[in-house]
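Service request form, structural biology core

Requester: graduate student, group of Dr. S.
Request type: structure prediction, single chain
Budget code: on file
Notes: please return the result as structure tokens.

Sequence provided:
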Amino acid sequence: MPYAGQLARSQEIADKVARVFQQRAQRAQHQFSERARDAGMRLFGNGAADRFGDGPGQFNGYGYALDLMQRSILFWDTLRQRGNNFIEQTKRGFEPVLHFAHEMLLDGRTFARPVNYALLRIVPPEGLTIDPLKRPYLIIDPRAGHGPGIGGFKDDSQVGVALRAGHPVYFVTFFRDPQPGQTLLDVCAAEQQFVRHVRELHPDSAKPAIVGNCQGGWAAMMLASSQPDDTGPLVINGAPMSYWSGAWSEGEGDNPMRYSGGMLGGTWLASLTADLGNGKFDGAYLVENFENLNPANSFWDKYYNLLDNIDTEPARFLDFERWWGGYYLMNREEIEWITRNLFVGNTLWSGETRGVSGTSFDLRAIKSPIILFASMGDNITPPQQAFNWVADIYGSTDEIKSRGQVIVGLMHKSIGHLGIFVSGKVAKKEYTQIASVLEAIESFPPGLYGMEIAERKGDGGKIEYDVSFHERRLEDVTARFNRFERVDELPFEAVKQVSDFNQRAYELFAQPFVQAMANDTTASMLRAFHPLRAQRWMFSDYNPWLAWLGPAANAVKAARQPDSERDVLRRAEHCGSDMISASLDFYRAMRDATTEAMFFSVYGNLFSVHHAQQHAQRHEAREHVADPRDLPFVQDALASAGRGGYAEAVARVACLLMRHDEPLPLARMVLRQALAADYADYLPQMPRDEWRRIRGEQEIIVRYEPEQALLTLPVLLDDNDDRKKLITLFDKLHADSRMQGFEPTAAQQDMLARIRAALPVKAARATRRSAPAH
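Core staff response, request fulfilled:
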């Protein structure tokens, strides 16, 4: 491109960056001003006139000072207890923070290629009955710095929901220290053995449902794509499958974590950190990155909430910190695989990533239905990262159908990343409903669905939920999630190239010296003095200067007299806390806006115009086909309109009679499943994934050539007995009392009449005693 064109492009990038930065800065200033105004209104607009009298706004300086002193001592004592708990956990090597009793079934450390993973069986609490014939659940927690157990952290959790529904539950745990030489591919192979073992324990049950949380989500996808015949439905929660995605827009959608790889120069820093750890990467660095995303909560809000509610909050605080403060390790090979293939490389969905056997992970090979759960309030795994891989590997709704795949999307409006896994409200609502639909979605026609959960009050005011599904077009969903057609992902190509260059430079010039200087002693010292660990053991009984704190806290508890929340000084304290929190949020907003501006200023220019145009042309050619009929799988389906038998005919008739553009209540889907079981003799018997593939192909034929689909139907049913069986199925369904609430539409009645006319049944011979078909 001529220099004039490059200069014009640079100016265009600079103008947009400046405009977006200005808008983000104005929004940050507005939000800070609003919070400051609200804090002042709560302080001065609530009983301020009585703050020096005996009314609700009384001023009690001595009482407040005494209360503050007591709360402060109890606050620091709680941090001391946190430090003691951390030391005890470290001595024991850390354990899962599971709320439920469990027993180990398989220890990956004993495998031929040992890994620090194990398979646990969750022991149901007393009073809960588990049906061994029900579908087992296998839950995979994230290994992203923290320890395992968040999927069963409390009674209202993924584990609790599955147990209360009577399902056997198994849990994939891992230990603090990785086995020498283990890789992520070894872990995937171990998890395959776990799945096979669960199937052996439940030979008469349906295939196990796999629940993957965050990093455990893409681990579950790798597992299912490499072992599609052994896995049941997949529930993928907050998993960053398309890491480059995340709307760069003038509105909501700030996702700063995806810029980290570019601003840090790529993957080399992870390699350096692992080398300094003598081949072990410290998960505390990942946790530190998470904490820095929300400095207001990490450095102030959670601690002030403890101080403000010191009489009730310590137990919950310590319970959560037991998980949050457990820092696990990875081998250098593991963290490098993650950063190169996911965070920077973004290659998992593309099929470029290969397993132990050398074959690539093809996510299209997954045969089981997939439920994707994400949240609009998640700035670690925004919805674009959770869903865009579907558009990347399928490209169109018709390809999803042609492959017989069922993908269900569920969106929360506001919950944060951790809330997806630990929120009791999410467990009671979303996960309970997900568990209730896993059996039904296996009988769904192939396609892309949106799952919606509506609340209503039942008998006695109890909250009940109505679940419905709406079929979506992949093209429409992709356009709604990516308002700028994903042009913001183009600079990440430059990030990948810069990362590869820096990685090679580090390995050539610096890595030999770093590895020569590192040893177990220096690595242990670095881990021990990491700020997140140091702040725990420094506030513990290991610190002799805190010997007085425990006895002082006991004395305070004995004489504790909480001050009234009505005191004006307490309200002033709340106001001050709100201002500190608002200031930290303002800092975060400006920091993220600056990071975003720097990222696109640097990598937007590094990414060559020629390459960008080529990429855009390839992307457009893939996404915007002039006529969908030209797609290969559509052509193949249309060419097969006259080929097939009874199974294809039943699937085609179902497509011809299908209602369009209507929600699918869960009750209707459950009824379909029950009818299919009762009239199994009249339906083709085959694996569900094969049936979904046939149904998808027939739907494409009906969609593009409805008249041809009807005309060739007699070819599929050239056998008179097959025609009789299908017509008998029509009559039995029409007479079934359960179908009375689902009256056919005028269009369905007309189509049914045309189908009957197209399939005349020959009369039975006179020698037969059976009644003639009608």
